[in-house]
Design a protein that fits this description.
By secondary structure, the protein is an alpha/beta fold. It has 3 domains: 391 residues, Glycosidases (TIM Barrel), CATH 3.20.20.80; 54 residues, Oligo-1,6-glucosidase, Domain 2 (Oligo-1,6-glucosidase, domain 2, Alpha-Beta Complex), CATH 3.90.400.10; 63 residues, Immunoglobulin-like (Sandwich), CATH 2.60.40.1180. Helix content is 27%, strand content 13%. The chain has 16 helices and 18 strands. The strands form 4 sheets. The chain has an 8-stranded parallel β-barrel. The longest helix is centred in the middle third of the chain and has 17 residues. The structure holds 1-deoxynojirimycin.
């Protein structure tokens, strides 16, 4: 039988920011349950929940203190079970985030490891002696993703590794107890009806620390890091694949097998190795997310993603946003080459984004994303065309990037601001008592309520796109339209549907056909610049 996830659309929920049922200003599990009708009406096939586990929230919950419970601020395990049942009643699947690379500092294992240098729990993490005569220098020059050294020294003089914040000590995946623990965690949630897992930094778990070696330090993201350090000591080690072969055995024992999607910031060929038939099902295709607004770039990334996925018998996943990146309607309204970090530091005012252009491009990009073979992940608020909240005041920022960078990088809070459900009222319908990140005064214009009333809204565009996509998504063939697919225009057929995306400024004449959907207003059969359309052609 064809697995359900192959052409699914998953709606990513950032639990603290969807809906607040108990009025403490923080989104919760009961809030998610109360908004499942929105997800169902959108036409998504399910939800993926970012972490909701007990946590000190040093990194938005990606610092987990107990992998088998719900943070009391967000509810209880019983609330979670109610939510899963309510989702299943609506035909929605539930995927959850699993964070196997690190725990929170508050996790009992780490607390035990800190208690004594001889504690057996020390071996569950990566403790090493420092460099220099008195060991006061970190063991290597590695930097944390959030800034500062990737090692922190404890009271007895040893150093522990944290690829992310100091509050997130890395686990030692060479230890059998760590492996057994995660098999058990996967079973714990699978037994509670969870349909699948998103695996946090899936390519970092296994490390090669013998001997410890320095890295060539580069600026930029993971792609640059890997390019400069092809034999990277903690990213994409060949041995990590054995972990996923093991998990595949655990998850295949369920009926239906529980699905997996890996977070791997890797170039295509290295990425698809995680989706070989005996490993994981899917891996996020971040090349699409990172592509500039340029037809050649899209053609290239679509063709290579499809070809690479086909090599291992799968289909790509398509993403244009998530809780870690600047929202597209803002990004696509900025002059090409703008550094988003500098732009955020200037509170989104230098340069001033062209919001109309960015919004139009983001809508066109949505029609491109949702027409491609494979699955798609829609981050909450994308269906509303939400821009980044770039001017959050410094005192509101919670992202460890802000602290770790010594206040030179505002981080990711601007894409995590609680959703607007109503035009007005307390926290725009998010809850009854404010919101943990401040919402801007203009937030209500983007609300679900405002967009319900406007047939031309982004919300209606998404609903219609998800409805129409059901007629062609299962047939995974994409055929480029040789006549139209050139210059600034990306064009291909999915069955009877012709997809045309005009990334340039000039209008383009469409061929004869029935216009099913367009991301902006058409002038007869003329597609304006920065606009996409789906046509039925026979
Ligand atoms: C990736 C997650 O998406 C991000 O939010 C988090 O900070 C890191 N992994 C560390 O867990």
């Amino acid at each position: 039988m064809r697995p359900w996830w192959r052409d699914a659309v998953l709606y990513q929920v950032y639990p603290r920011s969807l809906a607040d049922a108990d009025g403490d200003g923080v989104g919760d599990i009961a809030g998610i349950t109360s908004r499942l009708d929105h997800v169902a009406a959108l036409g998504a096939d399910g939800v993926w929940l970012s972490p909701f586990y007990p946590s000190p929230w040093a990194d938005g919950g990606y610092d987990v203190a107990d992998f088998r419970d719900v943070d009391p601020m967000l509810g209880t395990l019983a609330d979670f079970e109610t939510m899963v049942a309510a989702a299943h009643e609506r035909g929605l699947r539930v995927m959850i985030d699993i964070v196997p690379n690190h725990t929170s500092q508050a996790h009992p294992w780490f607390q035990a490891a800190l208690a004594s240098p001889d504690a057996p729990e020390r071996d569950l993490y990566v403790f090493r002696r420092g460099r220099g005569p008195d060991g006061s220098e970190p063991p290597t020059n590695w930097r944390s993703t959030f800034g500062g050294p990737a090692w922190t020294r404890v009271a007895d003089g040893a150093w522990y590794l944290h690829v992310f914040a100091p509050e997130q000590p890395d686990l030692n995946w060479d230890h059998p107890r760590v492996r057994e623990e995660f098999r058990d965690i996967l079973r714990f949630w699978s037994d509670r009806g969870v349909d699948g897992f998103r695996i946090d930094v899936a390519y970092a778990l296994v490390k090669d620390l013998d001997p410890l070696r320095d890295l060539v330090l580069v600026t930029g993201g993971r792609f640059e890091d890997i390019a400069a350090n092809p034999d990277h000591p903690f990213l994409d080690r060949p041995e990590v694949h054995e972990v996923y072969r093991d998990w595949n055995r655990v998850l295949s024992a369920y009926d239906p097998p529980r699905a997996t999607v890996a977070e791997v910031w890797l170039p295509g060929e290295r990425r698809v190795r995680y989706t070989r038939p005996d490993e994981l099902d899917q891996a996020f295709n971040f090349e699409f997310l990172l592509a500039p607004w340029d037809a050649d770039a899209y053609r290239q990334v679509i063709a290579s993603s499809l070809a690479e996925a086909a090599q291992v018998g799968t289909v790509p996943t398509w993403v244009v946003g998530n809780h870690d990146v600047v929202r597209k309607p803002s990004l696509l309204g900025l002059p090409e080459g703008t550094d988003p970090r500098a732009w955020l530091l200037a509170d989104g005012r230098d340069p001033e984004p062209d919001t109309e252009l960015g919004g139009a491009r983001a809508r066109a990009l949505a029609l491109l994303e949702l027409s491609l073979p494979g699955s798609a992940y829609v981050y909450q608020g994308e269906e509303l065309g939400l821009p980044e909240v770039a001017d959050l005041p410094a005192e509101a920022l919670e992202d460890p990037r802000w602290r770790g960078s010594g206040h030179t990088d505002k981080g990711r809070d601007g894409c995590r601001v609680p959703l607007p459900w109503t035009r007005e009222g307390s926290s725009f319908g998010f809850g009854s008592n404010g919101s943990w990140l401040p919402q801007p005064s203009w937030w209500g214009e983007f609300s679900v309520e405002a967009q319900e009333a406007d047939p031309g809204s982004t919300l209606h565009l998404y609903r219609e796109a998800l409805r129409l996509r059901r007629s062609f998504a299962a047939d995974e063939v994409l055929v480029w339209d040789d006549a139209l697919n050139r210059g600034p225009v990306v064009a291909f057929r999915r069955g009877e549907v012709l997809v045309v995306v005009n990334t340039g400024p000039d209008p383009v004449r469409l061929p004869r056909g029935e216009v099913l959907l367009a991301s902006g207003e058409l002038d007869g059969m003329v597609l304006p610049g920065d606009t996409a359309a789906w046509l039925r052609v026979t």
